Amino acid sequence: MSNSHANAPANATGIGASVKRREDFRFLTGQGTYTDDINRPNQTHAYILRSPHAHARINGIDTAAALEAPGVVAIFTGKDIAADKVNGLPCGWLIHSKDGSPMVEPPHPPLVLDKVVHVGDQVAVIIAETCEQAKDAAELIMVDYDELPAVTTSPEALKDGAPLVHDQAAGNLCYDWHLGDKVATDAAFAKAAHVTKLDLINNRLVPNAMEPRAAIGEFDRATGDYTLWTTSQNPHVIRLLMGAFVLGIPEHKLRVIAPDVGGGFGSKIYHYAEEAIVTWASRKIGRPIKWVAERSESFVSDAHGRDHVTHAELALDADGKFLGLRVQTLANMGAYLSTFAPSIPTYLYATLLAGQYTTPAIYAEVKAVFTHTVPVDAYRGAGRPEACYLIERIVENAARELGIDKTELRRRNFIPPSAMPYDTPVALQYDCGLFEKNLDQALALIDYQGFPARKAEAKARGKLRGIGLASYIEACGIAPSNVAGALGARAGLYESGEVRFHPTGSVTVFTGSHSHGQSHETTFAQLVSDRFGIPIENVEIVHGDTSKVPFGMGTYGSRSLAVGGSAISKAMDKVVNKAKKIAAHMLEAAETDIVFEQGKFTVAGTDRSLTIGDVALSAYVPHNFPLDELEPGLDEQAFYDPKNFTYPNGTQIAEVEIDPETGVVRIEKFVAVDDFGRVINPMVVEGQVHGGIVQGIGQALMENCVYDPQTGQLLTGSYMDYCMPRADDVPSFIVQYHEDAPCTHNPLGVKGCGEAGAIGGSATVMNAVVDALADLGIQHLDMPATPLRVWRAIQDASVSLAAE
Amino acid sequence: MPSVSLKVNGKSVTREVEGRTLLVQLLRDHLGLTGTHVGCDTSQCGACVVHVDGQSIKSCTMLAVQANGLEVTTIEGLAAADGTLHPMQAAFREHHGLQCGYCTPGMVMSAVDLAKSHEHLDEKTVREGLEGNICRCTGYHNIVKAVLAGAEAMRSQPAQAAAE
């Protein structure tokens, strides 16, 4: 039932084995190659001068003194960019408003021309012999700014008379979108026995991958080829966006390499200005240019995450069955539209509002709003944590209001396995899921029955103990291209895989997925070892280089295995089919009589067989091939486009204890039971869950991106101010999964595991915090539940209790 | 420019550096030891932890010239010459204590010092001892397991643990 397979995997390096990671040796010995570890001959260094203001007009930029500074090679501003007809950064998703009008898409110049719209906006690039010289010279640049009023939150930005971020976006509105059946939902509320209402804020976060972004641009005058090394989750996407839309460089003249990348969590999906700047400028100066973000720069230039303000209402009948859900959300886009930003609060959020429940009518309205802040885009979970937080918070409040146990209320509303495949009222079709099983397993792990006794014991010590859960579901394996296209995506979302047998039987796999911590070099090699029955040492996984990998859409949305792995699986099918033809020829048998099992091609019913290595050798030494019907070589490529999203799901439960004297919340216990479909490497999967949970806990208890509402200055712009979870802030976890509901529509039966922890984590913890405070009459607390916020809530509640 | 002479991973080196050059810049930019990483600019993240005269320090908090005459060990100097991992490195691999690998060098160097400076380590001590190292990938769960196991292994394999 738990993390043990009924039988140990037949192949010690195959599917289901906790193979130790092949990438670890280089990382543990300091031999990883991250972008900043790369230095090119004759390289220069770039420093980006950024706006210190949230909103200002630029009257002029005086670079004269800076150009004379030691080591300075060149300085470019928006005028140079415009003169070279460099375009703005494109947006990859078009959303239409309720009235059918397209979203407002303001230009996003790599270097601004005459106006800055957020602190950190790119004003100029200084290129010098050393990074320090570039930085010193930047101090000498005089920018004549006329400061203008700024607005940082969506509710304020929508008010009449609010400062406009872009002249073309009236009222700062990007789009006003909706999903679901309004009439049916209104009807559901009209007949409701009870309505639970909740206003909540899903706080803005900074993704904070530990490796700051970096980019090196290089132009080869001899060939006219450009190379960009960048900290990206999807180098082919960067090649397409930057090459085709920004710089006008065709694919065959532009190579993008994303070497070892130190975490992404969404923030390294997007095409950023600095990539275009160093690539473009490397041709201007005829030398390679390296740019590396300082952490304080990351805070004001990496896309942020979340930032929703929501009002939600849940209608229930007298038995606690959900009848309808009504949601109004304001989503802060920041100052510009980042690559995938418009899709996050729409198709990755509102489509998940059914959660695990049979709610028959749902209507969601989402307004996307421009503000004078850093652009907001996908951050681990992307839309789905926001949906999960809303649903699981309102369900738990409904249970409390109705006096129904929170687990019982969920059980009454779970979509049963018998209803699968299930069409939700918000455009998705869930293929499978055992929601009650996840819940039961998690409840047993945390000893739910024993909670009242633990709460009483804590109370005797003067502590407030609470238990909270979240039963989450996510749409992953992003995405079926036809669905995504119908919903406004401007690209397909398949993946490519190429499987190349070498003459002596080793294999190189080229995948369009990208690993920046996810362990592809190990888990993808397990797929190959398993399928071909060859030692994992004989398999090499290549990713992250557009000149090696045919094509790729990259890694985000828990898609690597479900889409990238399926592409490899499909390519392996093609290899086996080809190898069967070769084996049939070698064994002088009919192709239909050849069976492939455990790395061997056998003539059915005989002991005549060949290993796949024998076949590979013959494929490359085809001395007697019938060449008109059999090509030499054993190298196959496949593209896999999923038929549907995958739907990882599970239940997380947290138990917290609050010290009412200090407001400090400690997580005493945290369990997660997940359904990721088939699991390739349990060790890696558990690690992904742990990391996701801590990002969820971080949002719930610590992390918060705060702007000064008057000046638009980022107040949490360093690790001194933005509270990252550290080892002593979190507990160890009990993480289990089951494989009883494999994905029904991809060849591996896998669903994806990268985002799950982060999707359920914040809702789980906040439900536990509110549960601990419920006896004081506290119904809701916005994240993060910092000691100050919790302490104040307790004080306010105590005062009002005393007054009654 | 000032000159600085020090021993790095057992080898004597001398370099001319600007006065403002940090130890981490000397290691990465002048000596090519890029295993030591920079993850922040406020001495918070711990990706740059190395050992100076046997003690873990954040190499972004020290000027290169301050290391004059001292002995520095970086992550590149931790494993044995034949590639055999230090017990702490081996424990991180065994317990999946790393994902993207970026915080890993600093985390391992901190863990080695933590293990050396404590007779007995338990989960609480490890969590508090790693407070100066931020990891965004692992949720710390497996790092804690790795450090406990690595410390145990260092006690039972003193020869390899002394390799640095």
Q: The CATH topology of the largest domain in chain B is what?
A: Ubiquitin-like (UB roll)
Helix run count of chain B: 6
DSSP strand tally of chain A? 28
What is the overall silhouette of chain A? globular
The backbone outline of chain B, from C-alpha atoms, is: globular
Radius of gyration of chain B using CA atoms only: 15 Å
Spatial arrangement of strands, main beta sheet of chain A: 3-5-1-12-9-10-11
Which second-level CATH architecture of one domain in chain A applies? 2-Layer Sandwich
Biggest interface goes to: A-B, 57 and 56 residues
Q: Which class do the helix and strand fractions of chain A yield?
A: alpha+beta
Roughly how much helix do the residues of chain B carry, as a percent range? 25-40%
User: How would you describe the oligomerization state of the chains in this entry?
Assistant: heterodimer
Which sequence of SSEs, written as H and E, runs from N to C of chain B? Answer: EEHEEEHHHHH
Beta fraction of the residues of chain A? 15-25%
> According to CATH, what is the class of the largest domain in chain B?
Alpha Beta
Low-confidence stretches of chain A: none
* Strands side by side in the biggest sheet of chain B: 2-1-5-3-4
Number of helical stretches of at least 4 residues of chain A: 20
- Low-pLDDT sequence parts of chain B: none
N-to-C span of chain A: 50 Å
Question: CA-to-CA gap between the ends of chain B?
Answer: 31 Å
Topology:
The complex is a heterodimer of chains A (804) and B (164).
Chain A: H1 24-28, E1 44-50, E2 56-62, H2 64-67, E3 72-77, H3 78-83, E4 115-116, E5 122-128, H4 131-138, E6 142-147, H5 154-157, E7 173-180, H6 182-190, E8 194-202, E9 214-220, E10 225-230, H7 235-247, E11 254-257, H8 273-285, E12 289-292, H9 295-301, E13 308-316, E14 322-334, E15 361-370, H10 384-402, H11 406-413, E16 422-423, E17 429-430, H12 435-446, H13 451-460, E18 464-473, H14 481-486, E19 495-501, E20 507-511, H15 520-532, E21 539-542, H16 560-587, E22 594-597, E23 600-603, E24 609-611, H17 612-620, E25 635-640, E26 649-659, E27 664-675, H18 682-702, E28 734-738, H19 756-773, H20 787-803
Parallel strand pairs in A: 1-12, 10-11, 14-15, 20-21, 27-28
Antiparallel strand pairs in A: 1-5, 2-4, 2-6, 3-5, 7-15, 8-13, 9-10, 9-12, 13-14, 16-17, 18-26, 19-20, 19-25, 22-23, 23-24, 26-27
Helix pairs in contact in A: 10-19, 15-16, 16-17, 18-19
Chain B: E1 3-8, E2 11-16, H1 23-30, E3 49-52, E4 55-58, E5 71-73, H2 87-94, H3 104-116, H4 123-129, H5 141-156, H6 158-161
Parallel strand pairs in B: 1-5
Antiparallel strand pairs in B: 1-2, 3-4, 3-5
Helix pairs in contact in B: 2-5, 3-5
